[in-house]
Specification:
Strand order of the largest sheet: 2-3-5-6
Mean pLDDT: 96
Radius of gyration: 16 Å
Largest sheet: 4 strands, antiparallel
Oligomer: single chain
Distance between the termini: 54 Å
Helix content: 10-25%
Strand content: 35-45%
CATH class: Alpha Beta
Shape: globular
Amino acid sequence: MPSKPSKTLETFENPTPDRDYTIRIEIPEFTCLCPKTGQPDFATLNLEYVPASRCIELKSLKLYVWSFREEGAFHEAVTNQILDDLVKASEPHFMRLTAEFNVRGGIYTTVVAEHKSDAWTAPEPVSLP
């Protein structure tokens, strides 16, 4: 197999660090294991962030997400762990991770975790006529 799961998150220099802009990434094939039953849990991860000096490299993100496939984790814990790892790697102005887990036992779970840099102020929304 040419690639394998990895916990290493790579970044690259933000090409436009003087402008606040949002990067949105949808990851529809996240899997981990239920820590109680060992059965697979499936989720769509939606990542939104305003980069500061670094952006997340997508191939490393794919391999990073893949690394959870054989790990047991509660939805709340794995969502916050992923956010923490992404923030540590990229040090964004703002980052939000929404994990929408598929139904299990008739229950859907969505976990939303956010990070905001203390030094950053969100721009005012623009109202167009």
